[in-house]
Amino acid sequence: MRALIVDDEPLARRGVARLRKFKGIEIVGECGDGSSAVGKILALAPDVVFLDVQMPGMDGFEVLRALPRENLPNVIFLTAYEQHALRAFEVHALDYLLKPVDDARFAAAIGRARKSMDAALKTTMAQRVLHMLDRASEKYATRFSIQTGSRIQIVLAEDVEWIGAAGDYVELHAGRRSHLLRETMASLEQRLDPARFLRIHRSRIVRTDGIQELRSIENREFTVKLADGSEHRSSRTYADRLERWLTCGGS
User: Fold this and answer.
1) Which end of the chain has fewer beta carbons closer than 10 Å to its terminal beta carbon, N or C?
2) pLDDT of 83 higher than 50
3) 147 phi, psi to nearest 5 deg
């Protein structure tokens, strides 16, 4: 398996270069910036690229967008992202390594990369990368238009403290007021910035910087207290998301 390492930090590149100890892996090159990465991917056609997401100038996503779709390699993303930003990779079943890289996860990623060498799997992974790039290019909602009779009120996403399901509507809670928006929880969740909003229950989404306290109930469920004084019960269905947010330190 031929691998290319792309990261603007020399120390991070050296960390990934330890994959030399894995049998059957050849490092065909290293790049410290996005533009040279595009050239090397096209010239070397590596089987897998360890690609840093955040680089000055041309970031990892822009590198992939610059490639012809038929030249998309298998990618293992390198990222210092925390909490919900990682969901972008998980939702699309794409592999990532959180820096600093954990040895066990590193070995697991190598194992998955070997399996993806199969032509059919490589095509599937390329489709997942393309889908994530399409989604990443979309802007998250920054405001909502709430129509009441002849009036249209604008509610800023940054003012929304929590969101509840209300039949065919969602209820946006901002300050001391609530606003009904005709949209499902699932579709609204897709439009919210995952770095700022977290779904903790099928009927609840909360703004993460408003979380003040968690009280354990049972079976990986919590009572989540927000800065506005409201309390919301999380469910086991969304426990992984909440625990990941906690593990990464929140923010």
Assistant:
1) C
2) no
3) -100, 130
SS3 (DSSP) at 232: strand
Please choose, from the candidates 39, 62, 66, 42, the residue with its C-alpha nearest in 3D space to the C-alpha of residue 52.
62
**For residue 171, what are the β-bridge partners?**
164, 180
What pLDDT, on a 0 to 100 scale, did the predictor assign at position 93? 59
Amino acid residing at 101: V
**Pairing label, strands 26-31, 2-6:** parallel
CA 241/CA 211 separation, integer angstroms: 14
- d(CA 226, CA 36) in angstroms, rounded, equals 46
Structure token digits, residue 98: 């959180």
CA distance 163 to 41: 43
Interval 158-187: pLDDT, tens: 899 999 999 889 999 998 899 998 888 988
d(CA 210, CA 197): 10
Determine contact, residues 88/249, Cβ cutoff 8 Å.
Answer: no
CB count, 10 Å around CB of 115? 8
Among candidate residues 89, 73, 93, the one with its CA nearest the CA of residue 29: 73
Scan for tokens 């919900």, then name that residue.
84
For residue 82, the cross-strand partners are none
44 or 58: whose pLDDT is higher?
44
Q: What is the mean pLDDT of the chain?
A: 84
